[in-house]
Amino acid sequence: MPKIVPIKILKTMKEEYEILKLGNPILRRTAKEVSKEEILSENIQNLIDDMWNVMEKAGGIGLAAPQIGISIQLAVIKLESSSDRYENLEDSEEFIIFNPELEVINSEKQGFWEGCLSVPGLRGYVKRPKKLKISYLNEKAEKKEVIVEDFLATVFQHELDHLFGYLYVDRLDSTKDLVFEDELVNITKDKILD
Ligand code: NI
């Protein structure tokens, strides 16, 4: 595998990472896989810390590396019950996911109002399969498998879509299911995600 990590981008958190928005071509790339050696490197370990910081600061519950301009297959996910932005969330463990593979276990679909830090101000009602098996490497470059269902299944599919060039707006059945979040308050109190 070629060297893929642009060192200059990963060097420091002193400069704040910018969250890229819909229209930026980096969000449309298939991100590169990360080797075990790279996962264990100082640069990537620092990047993981930076991703948590960026996500927390933005009030999100998941973040994919391409969203901060780094086109590698890395995403972090953590649901927080203490979140002000989301109602009725249960705490999840912290997931650090490299090189994921998704396998649908139950293809029956469930819908949630999704949001995205890369699509600020909007929400879309997206229906996705309700149960999946995710195989990935964790931050120690160990092979992991997790079964996800309900809202967590949607969060995983949303975040991992970012690693393959997709955004939730691509998953809408209809543009009628896309609204400004100010208006969403009038429609529903369903869970949303960022
Ligand atoms: Ni997103």
Describe it.
With 194 residues, this protein is of the alpha+beta class. It has one domain (7-193): Peptide Deformylase (Alpha-Beta Complex). 23% of the residues lie in helices and 28% in strands. It contains five helices and seven strands; from the N terminus they run αααβββββαβαβ. Strands 1, 2, 3, 4, 5, 6 and 7 form a seven-stranded mixed sheet that branches. A hairpin with a 5-residue loop joins strand 4 and strand 5 (143-149). The mean pLDDT is 89. Nickel (II) ion (NI) binds next to loops.
Give the count of structural domains.
Answer: 1
CATH superfamily: Peptide deformylase
Q: Which regions have little confidence, pLDDT < 50, spanning 5+ residues? A: none
CATH T-level topology: Peptide Deformylase
* CATH domain class: Alpha Beta
List keywords for this structure.
globular, 5 helices, 23% helix, Peptide Deformylase, binds nickel (II) ion, 194 residues, alpha+beta
Describe the structure in brief:
The chain is an alpha+beta fold. 23% of the residues lie in helices and 28% in strands. It starts with 6 loop residues before the first helix and ends with a strand.
Question: Topology, pairings included?
Answer:
Blueprint: H1 7-10, H2 36-39, H3 42-58, E1 62-64, E2 74-77, E3 95-114, E4 122-137, E5 143-149, H4 150-161, E6 178-180, H5 181-187, E7 192-193
Parallel strand pairs: 3-7
Antiparallel strand pairs: 1-2, 2-3, 3-4, 4-5, 4-6
Bound molecules: nickel (II) ion (NI).
Nickel (II) ion binds next to loops.
